[in-house]
User: Fold this.
Amino acid sequence: MSSFGTFFKVTTYGESHCKSVGCIVDGVPPGMDLTEADIQTQLTRRRPGQSALTTPRNERDAVQIQSGTEFGKTLGTPIAMIVNNKDQRPNDYTETDVYPRPSHADYTYLTKYGIKASSGGGRSSARETIGRVAAGAIAEKYLTLVNNVEIVAFVSSVGSIAMNRDPRSEKFQDILENITREQVDASGPIRCPDAEIAPSMVSEVEKHRDDHDSIGGVVTCVIRNMPVSLGEPAFDKLEALLAHAMLSIPATKGFEIGSGFMGTTMCGSEHNDAFFVDGDSGRFRTKTNFSGGIQGGISNGENVYFSVGFKPPATISKEQSTVSYEGKEGVLAARGRHDPNVVPRAVPIVEAMAALVIADAHLIQESRKAAAAIVTSKGF
Amino acid sequence: MSSFGTFFKVTTYGESHCKSVGCIVDGVPPGMDLTEADIQTQLTRRRPGQSALTTPRNERDAVQIQSGTEFGKTLGTPIAMIVNNKDQRPNDYTETDVYPRPSHADYTYLTKYGIKASSGGGRSSARETIGRVAAGAIAEKYLTLVNNVEIVAFVSSVGSIAMNRDPRSEKFQDILENITREQVDASGPIRCPDAEIAPSMVSEVEKHRDDHDSIGGVVTCVIRNMPVSLGEPAFDKLEALLAHAMLSIPATKGFEIGSGFMGTTMCGSEHNDAFFVDGDSGRFRTKTNFSGGIQGGISNGENVYFSVGFKPPATISKEQSTVSYEGKEGVLAARGRHDPNVVPRAVPIVEAMAALVIADAHLIQESRKAAAAIVTSKGF
Amino acid sequence: MSSFGTFFKVTTYGESHCKSVGCIVDGVPPGMDLTEADIQTQLTRRRPGQSALTTPRNERDAVQIQSGTEFGKTLGTPIAMIVNNKDQRPNDYTETDVYPRPSHADYTYLTKYGIKASSGGGRSSARETIGRVAAGAIAEKYLTLVNNVEIVAFVSSVGSIAMNRDPRSEKFQDILENITREQVDASGPIRCPDAEIAPSMVSEVEKHRDDHDSIGGVVTCVIRNMPVSLGEPAFDKLEALLAHAMLSIPATKGFEIGSGFMGTTMCGSEHNDAFFVDGDSGRFRTKTNFSGGIQGGISNGENVYFSVGFKPPATISKEQSTVSYEGKEGVLAARGRHDPNVVPRAVPIVEAMAALVIADAHLIQESRKAAAAIVTSKGF
Amino acid sequence: MSSFGTFFKVTTYGESHCKSVGCIVDGVPPGMDLTEADIQTQLTRRRPGQSALTTPRNERDAVQIQSGTEFGKTLGTPIAMIVNNKDQRPNDYTETDVYPRPSHADYTYLTKYGIKASSGGGRSSARETIGRVAAGAIAEKYLTLVNNVEIVAFVSSVGSIAMNRDPRSEKFQDILENITREQVDASGPIRCPDAEIAPSMVSEVEKHRDDHDSIGGVVTCVIRNMPVSLGEPAFDKLEALLAHAMLSIPATKGFEIGSGFMGTTMCGSEHNDAFFVDGDSGRFRTKTNFSGGIQGGISNGENVYFSVGFKPPATISKEQSTVSYEGKEGVLAARGRHDPNVVPRAVPIVEAMAALVIADAHLIQESRKAAAAIVTSKGF
Assistant:
């Protein structure tokens, strides 16, 4: 429902126009440095109004920690976080009082609950992701301390303008190996680090924005300095948890890990990642990484990388022939201005969900490691 | 870990060479007709040795219900099911005692647990999926009674030989609308209902089999007569649960729902599924179904359809340069015969996991519906 | 950890001196009338400073709903509730900076988390129960609509001053059958409806208060108009869930359901509750109710009643010989005034936890009922 | 439902007369020595027919491990265990086909599920506890390796024949400190280590047995060499988990931890457990242990001790006036011989459930400890 994770567990709350949105994060390790500044950075990257490519609503989204820390340290107790909503009851959405927006959650929420929030997206609004991003920022802080884990997401396609994501592409693997968040943000409003195509992506968004339409895209994410041994067979394989996490983000339509759908066209002798022993660390590594850092559902220490497909946003101001809640045919054109494309803003959300998955998997494996050390009288 | 589901919950057990494999299914509705015959059909579709395209091991995989039914009716109590393993300690895998198989779970299980099963895939073996298929068969039985729900999966690509899965393709939508399990099985050993390409798929598998290699593929699945209102925002959106379920199947690399990655290239005015009122039922329906039957994480009653990408099997008898467990470079060629391609056998596994997700989501929504009827003094 | 329940699930947060305390309640049925007034009543019954028998701190504890309702109706989405803390960093507890309070959580929190809140009880403070009481009020509202369920708790003993709780006592059964919350509150500050002993209880508390000491007691609770069939064998028997809920309340030492420990002294032919058919309703009832309304872990429709033992509060201002955090022997006398007895204030907390258990069990059984009706083509 | 635990999780299955009963235990630490012999000991202590005091049915209850171990070591994967049922469809219970047994689960199962097993107790049968005892034996094995944890339960009362359980009794505390399982079993069929009253207990059971009646009793359990810091505030306090575990055992009516209900009559200055520093270990200990080894829901390293009340068994062969399933008044006298008292056989079940709680809590705290060590760069 509204909770995610086993040990490092977030529960979010809030609709688009209620008093506040936020979350409770349970299971945060005690004694960790943590202040609101650690959380605000990603919230600020998530908020709308950052560029002409996104919705012009300007929401400051300042987070307030309610509990679970003292003198800048975590207590190990639940951390509640709140971001106040500014506009609690807007008048901006009147057409959508009459028409359920096609491909939006308006209709299904009504069938599911028999009632729906009167304005905006209600619980299905992207504002729900504020709680996720806040929780993810805490998870990231932990992972940085664990192993200097780096999680970087970026836009890899907008409409048909796409980076070459073939896992055999050297350029793609080079980006996965080296890209930083700073570079992603410096690459411009579209957050695509491939300078050759980023301008075309911007044009693509602008074209659809000016056409009162919207366009989809893909976010790719890499996790470097991955701890080994994370993920729980059989049902909670690491890629299964990541897929669950990513497909729970609004507007997502697909997920692929490592070689992904491209890998289905490869033969085993090419796709298998041969082992070698790293001279420096003595650690087992693989020459290629079509597995995307996960084998048998368990991380092997190589980079975890995956891509998430986002559909074009459903709310557009272009006219659409559809039917009203009363079942009468008519034409809907949403008032106001809406995101013509969500992928740049989805970047910190994808990073947050990835951090939640990895932090939880790490805490679970730490328990097993400790227990195995006890029963075998040795660590491993 | 080894459990999946909230209300309709399966817990599986078993490794490739232990005494038996199986599962406990908790939360099965009481009073339902159920015998072993209901379960055996899908287990038989899943077992190896069905054709020259799969592993020649012939495992009968006869299920035995241990508990939870009496006189052919479910009691509402946990249903335990067992399938005995035939070969408990084979000698067939000696090279793999020396070398962790590249892209297999051998290495990661060892790092995770500090110990691994001495032969075969252990817990990572596809035999683990027997418990899932058995549980899924019970879920399917329930869903048939709920709404005559039909779940049909089929092979949509092998290597580069692919059906046109563009959601705008009429042929593809026609297959989704009409394909039956009988047709899938009648289509030949590759289980692809597109007669134009099925023979090429067979050749593709044979080519890699004869080359001691393997090849990947894609399974597509459709769920028809879907109940409306299933799926739980925010984290347990129906597509998120399906993605979790599918990526927990061994060898999977990708998942897409509805328009999937193709949908990321579409603009909103094309992708939005306009509503209309069905003349016969008076029910809200959509003219197109790029959403794949789910909007805002909740089913809208249209067909749910999705595709799952499978990598080429990791165990091949072709020589691979890699390193031994001791870290010495060497060459591994797995003895024996192995599945050159898993997708035909994955078909009933995908169906089973889909059934588990839908049955669980249905039980959850039934609770809400009942409660809402109580508090509002009306049904909905 | 900080979550309780499966379908009707509360997650609480907050320490004694952080910014606010509160909770998120997930799974509340949609379309139900709900405003802050529905919640405030029980919070007000819980707060300190209500009489000379409790701590003189006067906390208003006004609840603010953040989400999940609109125009006084629940949306089916998570309901977040906040109560601001007044004193965020008091100076009142200086001795307790030096000494871990005996039988308090000071020492164990420090060993568990390696850090503890600097003042007051931190997370172990009774302020954590505010979130429970707020959530319980929503659960109660639902249960009232379900079956006019009545949950009434009262003080049945203070120190050695005890009501006769022998399940064979007619007076005791009469109280269970008829007592109302109004009568409990009208009975005076000790909330004991037995007018013969309530004054002695008050004296008992006053004696210990004046002696800078504290005293324990017992709260008994009855649930009337119980729906049948609630509780999930094997591990989630209704009495097991109630026991879990009650022993999670701070300062509890014991739980007994129905005949309780007294029942262990009875023989089967006396203890068995013979069935009869109620002439009016045609419903199966039992002549006696030593079972406490639960048989085989499942409610049978008779009154559920149970008692919860509370130890004397650990924080007393009487001098105690103990050791400091540094391990030095010394004498601790807590400053300020503290609750000499918690049972009157525990009354609404016990009611809240009972309501949470019953509401959750009801939602679970509604799902089964609906499913069984589907598979058997009949209700039951 | 049929699962218990978070990390160390058991799922049981089986009715009194199905093919087999058993369980799957997930989360067992890998690399631990484990064979069937480790499990059989407690199963044998649990089985009926051990003395003239219990049911004369002689069930051998030999456990068979199905999975999760190899060469006598755990693999970290789920361990399935099976005990075959001997009598699958007995004819011994014909009267109970006509009459729901008073205070038994017959009636409530029927209302809950709309169907019930045709003979015996079905799922409510004590045979369900076989899976618990098998799982508990594994948990105990782990706890022995953790800290040489000792869990010993014994009978402390039968009917009105009771040991003095006043926590201030030196004799009682001495038993808690020193009693061994060997002594408990050597004490005779009633498993009460107090030689002064054990013979009277035996007579008490014999009297009720000969009278075709039954009698209740109390089992007390102590856990020595307890690891510190186990238990999770707020809802999963260690005593709450123990209470949940114990009240999930069939026929239980009460639970008390440490001073229990007796503690409610004490004043704080007596009840508080003053700290001292243990000269040998330098460890904080308490002079008294009214807390029962748990403070603030977290273990402090002192002995955890608690008592569990069991009602007289409901199935008696004495005549009882009641009504049939059809609602007709009549007289039921159960055929066959039944346990006149369950407490001696409950001893290993109480131990098993205690072991499951402690093992799970330990695994959870190990995760936190590891995480805290990472974030603070020190252990604690």
In short: The two ends of chain C are 36 Å apart (CA to CA).
